[in-house]
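Open question from group meeting: does this chain pack into something compact, or does most of it stay loose? Before anyone orders reagents, we agreed to write out a predicted structure and look at it together. Recording both the input and the output here so the notebook holds the full record.
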Amino acid sequence: MHVGSSMESEPVETRPPSRFASPNDHAECRRLHRKFGTTYYFATRLFGRRTRERVNALYGFVRVPDEWVDNPVGGDIERRNRLEAYRSELIRALDGVCPTQPVLRAFCDVMHEVGMPLDEPLRFLDAMAQDLSISRYETYEDLRDYMRGSASAVGLMMCSVLEAGNNPAMLEAAVALGEAMQLTNFIRDVSEDYNRGRIYLPAEDMARFGVTEADLEPTPRFRELIRFEIERARNLYSQADVGIPLLPPRARKAVRLARILYSRILDRVEANGYDVFSARARTSKLEKLSVLIVEILR
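Structure tokens returned:
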């Protein structure tokens, strides 16, 4: 079987009549997803065409403001203004006002199609705004509050995109998976985030292992800190696993594939001796393909 073919058992669908988005808007979402979200994009191979398009739109919606925050052009005031305008366009779209941003046009069409509430998209945008004013987190609970918007909100939006229903156990697992993936990012990207002026490792954890900001290098103490955070992330992945069987059957393989591949970033960090400074931990194309084949044959 060709590995690029869809394994989602759903009827062939045509895109519903668009309220706002053009094919070019959806193409822009797909471009952003393919460029920046390589692991997630790879996993969408196991969705049907229409579901892939919806997932691309969700990714486009979250990627654009994330880029404004992480790789800014202009100062904080300009970034805040951009985020506020983006938020306002999202809200006005619900009243039928066409957004100016291509990704918003695509995403708002998806929100309309699946009946997605506004609360989680707004919670995500609140987290993006928080990045402009908060760069350190004292406790893990403080960090969790941030991740509830920056990551777990995306997991819950994904449940809406997949039309997965409202099973409380499934939604709780989606929150855990978002948190696990975000924590994986924070572990992998310590150096990159520090260069942006941010530290997402809780200060209480750093103090527990005797690590200061001046010690952000692969010392024995830093390695112990990262080993601790990896164990925390793996526990979250385990909590998330109970939710995958609760998803619609057509969605399970793709979500499981994304979960497996993303968690393997932690394996790469371990294999690199917990050195997250010299090279970026990532899964290889061969590893992605091998896991994909296993999921196809499950």
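Observations to bring back to the group:
The domain at 135-298 is CATH 1.10.600.10 (Farnesyl Diphosphate Synthase).
The chain has 13 helices and no strands.
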